Amino acid sequence: ISCIMSADIKTDEKKQHFDDIYVEKTPVPYKIRILDALSYISDDFNREMFDAHILPWAKSISGDGNTLNFLDLCSCFGNTTMATIYGMDYNQIRENWKDEDSCVSIQGERRFPVKITGVDISQPALDYGASAGLYDSIICSNLNERATEEFASVNKAMADADILLSTAALVYLDLETIESLVSSFANGSGTNKKKEGYVLVNFLNPFALEKADETKRILLKHLDFVASRATRHRRMSKLEMENYPGEEWSLLELWVLKRRC
């Protein structure tokens, strides 16, 4: 599948972007320049939110012999899937990705039976996740190009999903894209119609705050609110500190929502 890369990513110009990292074949540069250099601790909080509001349900459902469908939207190399599905913390992820040898496989176990689908604009990141055994299936798509076969495939995967994860990512998507994808998840497909399902998303601060509000309205239009939490995300880059004087950390607002059933 051919994917469109950095020129097609819609960005907040006050926010630092790392497009060159996403074309790398392994997550090692991502680990060094983002996880290490910017103290990217947010996956600890993503895991805690998942464990509090989604994991008990997932274990109870899968304990009956069911395999759940998990979709990581704008998944990149998969660090937040490692945090939520594998239960790995910030330092464990960094250790797993410390060099080209250690990152070849995931040094952990899935905590319940699950099929993981990674969706991203970066083919190299998805290829890494598939080769490391992190993703069972992948879809490479520029999600702001809604007339493509790949986008249709993503909408179908959203409808089939039991758990949707999208962290530090919705800011890059058009509101029309968010509406389409969230609607697909909310409506479900086949046996998923009117079946319980959960979403973990988060919103960046202080970036694109008005868009975050619009995104929240879309989520609440289609899904039921469960819980929220405010946490640190990562340290700001030099560019970001220049754009937001006096700030050292970017923040997150984490939300859990559920499918109406």
Which key terms come to mind for this protein?
7 strands, 10 helices, seven-stranded mixed β-sheet, globular, alpha/beta
Could you walk me through the main structural features you see in this protein, from its secondary elements to its overall organization?
The chain has helices at residues 28-36, 42-53, 55-62, 79-84, 90-96, 123-131, 149-160, 175-187, 209-222, 238-243, and strands at residues 68-73, 114-120, 137-140, 163-166, 198-205, 224-235, 249-258. It has 261 residues and is an alpha/beta fold. It has a seven-stranded mixed beta sheet, with helices on both faces. α6 (123-131) links the parallel β2 and β3.
Strand content: 15-25%
Secondary structure: number of strands? 7
Helix content: 25-40%
Largest sheet: 7 strands, mixed
Round the mean pLDDT to the nearest integer and report it: 88
Principal-axis shape: globular
The succession of helices and strands, N to C, reads HHHEHHEHEHEHEHEHE
Strand order of the largest sheet: 3-2-1-4-5-7-6
Rg measurement, Å: 17 Å
Assembly state:
single chain
Give start-end ranges of low-pLDDT stretches: 9-13
**How many helices does DSSP assign?**
10
Distance between the termini: 35 Å
Structure at a glance:
Helices cover 37% and strands 20% of the residues.
List the helices and strands and how they pair.
Elements (H helix, E strand, L loop, with lengths): L27 H9 L5 H12 L1 H8 L5 E6 L5 H6 L5 H7 L17 E7 L2 H9 L5 E4 L8 H12 L2 E4 L8 H13 L10 E8 L3 H14 L1 E12 L2 H6 L5 E10 L3
Parallel strand pairs: 1-2, 1-4, 2-3, 4-5
Antiparallel strand pairs: 5-7, 6-7
Helix pairs in contact: 7-8, 8-9
